[in-house]
Amino acid sequence: MSASKRLLYIANHRVFWTSIWRRKVTTWSPVGAAFNAKPLRRLDETVHFLPSQGLFGVPELNSPAGFEVATKKALKDTQELLDKVCSSPPGVVTVESFDQLSDGLCKVADLADFVKVAHPDPSFRDAAEKTCIEIGTVVEKLNTNVDLCRSLKNLLDEKKVLDQLDPETRKVAELFMFDFEISGIHLDEKQRKEAVKLHVQLLDLSNKFLMGSHLPNRIAKSAIPEHIHRHFATEGSYVQIGGLHAESSDDLVREIAYRIFLYPNADMMDCLDDLLKCRNKLAKLVGYESYAHRALQGTMAKTPGNMLPSLTAIDFEMMKDMKTKLNPHNVELMPWDPPYFSGVLRAERYNIEPSLYSPFFSLGSCMEGLNNLFTQLYGVSLNSEHPSAGEVWNEDVHKLVVVHETEGLLGYIYCDFFQRADKPHQDCHFTIRGGRQCQESGQYQLPVVVLMLSLPHPTKSAPTLLTPGMMENLFHEMGHAMHSMLGRTRYQHITGTRCSTDFAEVPSILMEFFAADYRVVNQFARHYQTGQPLPQNMVTRLCESKKVCGAADTQLQIFYSALDQIYHGEPQNRSTTDILKDTQQKFYGLPYIPNTAWQLRFGHLIGYGAKYYSYLMSRAVASMVWKQCFVKDPLNRDMGERYRREMLAHGGGKEPMLMVEGMLQRRPSIDDFVEALVSDLNPDFETFIMDSTS
Predict the structure, then answer these.
(1) Greatest CA separation found in the chain?
(2) Residue 313: per-residue pLDDT
(3) CA-CA-CA-CA dihedral for 317, 319, 325, 329, to nearest 10
């Protein structure tokens, strides 16, 4: 068969296959149809006559060796820009050159940071890892480069020139100076070299810990009852346990998974100890009281603070009663129990079996819902585009073009949604390229991001069907993506999600509120076979069910946040496990299990070191924004435009609390944050928490 005939055959076959579902339902929009279609092998991989355009359209990245080429080019350009910055008179060009220098390195490093964890080819992952280390080392040296810092200081010290800068440019200049300061630019040469050495050491320790935190543990088959072997992966005479199996209905499966998966690993324990010591040493070297104080500069929280009081008493009592009812011979509530028994309580009260909902949440319908929501709020549409040869790393990756009704093309979102071997089981948003106004070309550099989920593949008889939790996660991650698309800043250093960590989660968590509102859900939730809409009472039950044991869920986040803060506070002469044990008892209440080390699975210690509280802070802000601005009409265009103007458009170019104040048209107090955090829990809890904090 000729190449052209084969292409025609594949195209026709695809149309026939996808029409099997569409015959029975109302017509999907183009983006909905694209995501509900069964993915076929890319035409460029089936017919080998199209040259590879390289990953993300970067020509050098058509092979692993291309990372070395891209790295060398970025470093060469960096040196040329460095000479330009250091020799130019102070002015706006100083900030533009700084941003251009940063952009050249970030475009390679950010792309490599994604490829090293997500590419299915180990040779690509290894090449990307080398690039991350090489560029990371250069960045740390630049952050202690005295001549480079002097050129920026000359700008900030010259009041007449500084006063002529627009607020965004001035903010970016201050942020670049802040990077110098926290890296130790004020130190003498010997201390600066020590700071760079510590930064490079941290890069290595962080990578080692992050990789190790996801590795499975194994145990001999003979050590556990034979009848539960089937719940775990096997390797010869061993059983491999790569997670907590928290949703299992079998008490023994949950217990064994918990004890084995969290069993201490001596190398990982040493790695975490070294990581925390190194962070503390660096913070002290550059003049901070602790690493937590260093990390919280520029955030909404500003300094480490106290956590909320315990919220869990009533929830744990309900779970214990349910466990007693189901298993009278094993009634003590243990740390491996809450996820399962909270689910049982929700299902019993509200009949929210996921299989009842999934047929209404096909991936295509959910994407159609997101497209409709963004069109109504912002005038933005999502259009599916077939990627070029070699542009994507796996055949089932979708490419979306984001277009505004009057502003035109805004950027690109690559959707890596499906499960595969060696892919992290974590829902993530990656910035591949930040948006910026390119002074050198006069064009706007469009942002590029990746959304990574772990959804099941479609089958021969059905598209990918999402559980309510999967649907909510999709909306959450798309909130990050739209922040990147709509944060159309002049400088990439502050584009989109490049803002304070405790603000970055606000747009994503706010999307969870939209995902739980029937007026939004009713626009897209249709049965994939019959086209019938999801009944309103099912959405109501689902929303109400989230309040069941919500206090325990929130308290778990408080425990994680407290542990993170303590680890990054003043060093303590005891093990990380002893600290975990005491913190768990104080902030969570369920007993510590001997010979376990949950902290070695706490991967957020890397990206969210001393900032894990950000999820709680962002949830409180999102709750306030939803209730004050969107609850009356979640599809209101005027409010959507205000949200974009006040919160999304600035990226990290404006103080986060000022953005919140602009949206709410008032400055929230600490009491407002606390009330917002607990207001979605059971009414009994809201009364309890208000009394306990008054």
Answers:
(1) 78
(2) 83
(3) -90
| CA pair distance 242, 419, nearest whole angstrom | 15
pLDDT at 237: 95
Strands of 133-272, DSSP E: 217-220, 233-235, 238-241
Element (H, E) at 579: helix 576-587
**Looking up tokens 């490829």, which residue turns up?**
115
- In this predicted structure, which of 33-37, 255-259, 312-316, 434-438 has the lowest mean pLDDT? 312-316
What's the mean pLDDT in 204-213?
92
Query: Could you tell me whether strands 408-418 and 398-404 are parallel, antiparallel, or unpaired per DSSP bridges?
Result: antiparallel
> How far, CA to CA in Å, does 501 sit from each of 196, 300, 450, 562, 607?
23, 9, 19, 16, 10
- In degrees and rounded to multiples of 5, residue 513 shows phi and psi of -65, -40
Using DSSP, state whether 165 is helix, strand or coil: coil
The residues that are catalytic are 477
What domains sit in the chain, N to C, each tagged with a CATH number?
A: 55-143+145-183 (1.20.1050.40), 217-263 (no CATH), 312-350 (no CATH), 356-555+611-688 (1.10.1370.40)
Query: How many CA atoms within 13 Å lie on the side-chain side of 575?
Result: 15
Q: CA 458 to CA 418: how far, in whole Å?
A: 9
Determine the Cα–Cα distance for residues 276 and 270; give it in Å rounded to an integer. Answer: 10
Least-confidence region, from 2-16, 283-297, 418-432, 637-651: 2-16
